[in-house]
C-alpha cells in the first residue's frame, strides 16, 4: 500500500508523495473554488487559497527534509512529510497563505534546531537561533509568549545548558523585538509596537464551529492520542536520543495546549503541533511498518477524515 511505498527514496516514491499531498490539500479548497464557479464570489486577483496546496507541499517537503538531514530516523523516508500534510489537512483551507507560510516555516525551523542540539557539544548557535525563531513567532502571534519557557525546558531536556547558552536563547528572543522597536522609533509610529500584546483577544473562543468540524477535530485528536499512547508503551525500549527527543516534543505539545486554552484552538497552532506529531507518527510507523492491520486502520481513518471534510464542504455550499 502507499505507506510502504513512501518508505523509499526512489523517483516513484517522490512522485507518489507529491501527488498524495497535493490531492489531500486540494480537497480543503474545493468549497471556495465551487463558490467562485457558481458566481457566488468575484475575483480581480488570484485568491490566496489557490496557493495553499502548493504551500502545504513545500512545508511538507521541508519538514521531511529536516528529519532526513538531521539523521533522526534509521532510513530516509517520506513518512514525515506525509504525516505533516495529513495533520494540516483539516486546517490549511481555513488559513491565509501568509499565515501558513510564516508559522509553518518557523515551526519547522524550531524543530530542526532542536534536532541538532543533542549532537552538538556547544549549542551556542542553536540556542540563539531557537530564541530568534520564538521571538519572531511572538511578534506574529502574541500568544506564543507562553511557549517561550516550554521551549527552554525542551532544550535543557536534550542537553544541559551553560550560562552562555541560556543568555543566547533570551538574546535571540530579544533580537527581532529590538529591530521592531528600532523601526517604530525611526518612523515615529509606535502603533505596531503597542499592538504587540493584544490581551483583549485572549480567552475569546469561537462559537461558530459546526458539528462536522467537531467530528473532524475529534478524529484528529483520537489519532494524536493513539500515537502518543503507542509511543509511551514502548518508551523504555527506545534509544536514548529518541527518548530525549520524545520528551522535548512533549514540551512543545504542552505549550501549544496551553496556548489553545488561552486563545482557543486558532488555526496557526496546528503548524507548531504538526512537526512534533510527525516525529511520533513516523517513529511508530518504523516500529510497526510490517503490520498490515496498522496500515489498513490508517487508510480507513484517512478515508473517514476526507469524507467528513467533503461532507462539511458540500453542506456549507
Number of domains: 1
Number of helices: 14
Proportion of residues in β-strands: under 5%
* Rough outline: globular
Terminal-residue CA separation: 34 Å
> Would you tell me the overall average pLDDT?
76
Number of DSSP strand runs: 0
List SSEs in N-to-C order: HHHHHHHHHHHHHH
Segments where pLDDT lies below 50 for 5+ residues?
none
Helix content: over 70%
Biggest β-sheet strands, sense, barrel: none
What integer value in Å does the Rg equal? 20 Å
Kindly name the structural category.
Answer: mainly alpha
Describe the structure.
The chain has 317 residues and is mainly α. It has one domain. 72% of the residues lie in helices and 0% in strands. The chain is built from 14 helices and no strands. α5 (79-88) packs across α13 and α11 packs across α13. The longest helix has 25 residues, at 163-187. It is globular. It starts with a helix and ends with a helix. 35% of the residues are buried. The model has no long low-confidence stretch (mean pLDDT 76).
Can you give me a brief rundown of this structure?
With 317 residues, the chain is mainly alpha-helical. The chain is globular. It starts with a helix and ends with a helix.
Write the layout of secondary structure elements.
Elements: H1 2-6, H2 11-26, H3 30-37, H4 52-69, H5 79-88, H6 97-117, H7 124-140, H8 147-158, H9 163-187, H10 191-194, H11 211-233, H12 240-263, H13 269-288, H14 292-316
Helix pairs in contact: 2-4, 2-5, 4-5, 4-6, 5-13, 6-7, 6-13, 7-8, 7-9, 8-12, 11-13, 11-14, 12-13
